[in-house]
């Protein structure tokens, strides 16, 4: 009976167990997972653009090889997450269509420009660092396929974060011009990295339900604070300053107090008028159109295979 289904679902969540694709689940649970996993996947795919612009201009073969590996990883994360979303009854073609038509979101962070090669290091250190803070708890998300995808993705993210930090360490030991490039990149990426965690808890319409369903394990503000606590000592070691005059260690709590991100900026960027939104969507759309012949050929080939198998 239906009420039994809801009871079993609630008991599974209450006991910190996993909901699997064939289990009954409330429509709202399915819907918010499709929303979040699709956006997560879109973010990985769009995220290839800002760094991808530097593959052809990397300063050495070693840096080029590392960056190539990282961007390829992001593509893999995207495809992995589309597969997790497809276990909920959607299809990556439909999700891509929604992204291209602006009916689904991707992370605001990828709408900022990568002006120098120091941006590649700062993205690895701050953006992938923020991603790790957000994705480690998602390994304990109540939906099985999503949590398992996160375990593999988190392993690769730590390589992304390390290579970024090592790149910056190298530049900080270089010339004054290189040190200035690193500080300039930190000044441009610090606040947008804090905004990656989402709006403040009192302005986060999805959080209450996502936390009740144990999809989201910690609030936006809690994860943002964890990221700041983790990153400030790394900035000190690197020898850069963070562009927040209110940032200071709170002796009582042992954590860092910090200023308030510009929430109007986050809203604007999410709505589509960040520095690079139009360019990111234009390139995603043309990549999709240019790739149509591959999808058609693969579909035709699969149909021939199936016809041959039936003979
Ligand atoms: N960029 C774009 N949209 C954002 C956003 C951001 N930084 N922060 C919040 N939003 C959107 C939400 O999607 C929601 O809109 P929707 O209802 O239409 O989807 C709205 O703003 C309100 O935010 P909520 O806090 O209510 O939404 P959530 O509960 O979904 O929390 C989130 C937002 C914390 C980003 C959550 O969705 C999440 O944890 N997502 C999975 C992780 C993820 O997507 N990370 C993005 C970075 S990609 C990445 O890490 C790749 C790495 O390789 C760099």
Automatic annotation (TrEMBL):
EC numbers for this chain: 1.14.13.149
Molecular functions per Gene Ontology: phenylacetyl-CoA 1,2-epoxidase activity
GO BP term, pick one: phenylacetate catabolic process
UniProt cross-references to SUPFAM superfamilies, sorted A to Z: Ferritin-like
Claim: Oxidoreductase is one of the keywords in the record: yes
Keyword set includes Transport: no
GO cellular component term of the entry, any: cytosol
InterPro entries: Aromatic_CoA_ox/epox (IPR052703), Ferritin-like (IPR012347), Ferritin-like_SF (IPR009078), PaaA (IPR011881), PaaA_PaaC (IPR007814)
Cited Pfam families: PaaA_PaaC
Sorted UniProt keywords: Oxidoreductase
NCBIfam families in the record: PA_CoA_Oxy1
Protein name as catalogued: 1,2-phenylacetyl-CoA epoxidase subunit A
Taxonomic source organism: Streptomyces tagetis
Name of the gene: paaA
């Amino acid at each position: 009976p239906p009420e039994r289904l809801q009871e079993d679902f609630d008991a599974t969540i209450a006991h910190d167990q996993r909901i699997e694709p064939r289990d009954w689940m409330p429509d709202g649970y399915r819907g918010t997972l499709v929303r979040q996993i699709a956006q997560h996947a879109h973010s990985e795919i769009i995220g290839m653009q800002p760094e991808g612009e530097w593959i052809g201009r990397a300063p050495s073969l070693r840096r080029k090889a590392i960056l190539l590996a990282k961007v390829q990883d992001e593509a893999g994360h995207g495809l992995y997450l589309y597969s997790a979303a497809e276990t909920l009854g959607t299809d990556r073609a439909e999700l891509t269509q929604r992204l291209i038509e602006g009916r689904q979101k991707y992370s605001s962070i990828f709408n900022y420009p990568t002006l120098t090669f120091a941006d590649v290091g700062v993205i690895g250190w701050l953006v992938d660092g923020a991603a790790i803070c957000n994705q480690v708890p998602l390994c304990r998300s109540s939906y099985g396929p999503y949590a398992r995808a996160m375990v593999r993705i988190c392993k690769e993210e730590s390589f992304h974060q390390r290579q970024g930090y090592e790149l910056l360490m190298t530049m900080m030991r270089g010339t004054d011009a290189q040190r200035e490039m690193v500080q300039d990149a930190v000044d441009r990426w610090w606040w947008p990295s804090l905004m990656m965690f989402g709006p403040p808890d009192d302005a986060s319409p999805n959080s209450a339900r996502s936390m009740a369903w144990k999809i989201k394990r910690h609030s936006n503000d809690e994860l943002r604070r964890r990221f700041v606590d983790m990153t400030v000592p790394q900035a000190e070691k690197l020898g850069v300053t963070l562009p927040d005059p209110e940032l200071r260690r709170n002796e009582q709590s042992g954590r860092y107090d910090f200023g308030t991100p510009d929430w109007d900026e986050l809203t604007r960027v999410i709505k589509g008028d960040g520095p690079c939104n139009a360019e990111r969507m234009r390139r995603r759309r043309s990549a999709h159109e240019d790739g149509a012949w591959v999808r058609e050929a693969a579909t035709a080939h699969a149909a021939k295979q199936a016809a041959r198998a039936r003979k």
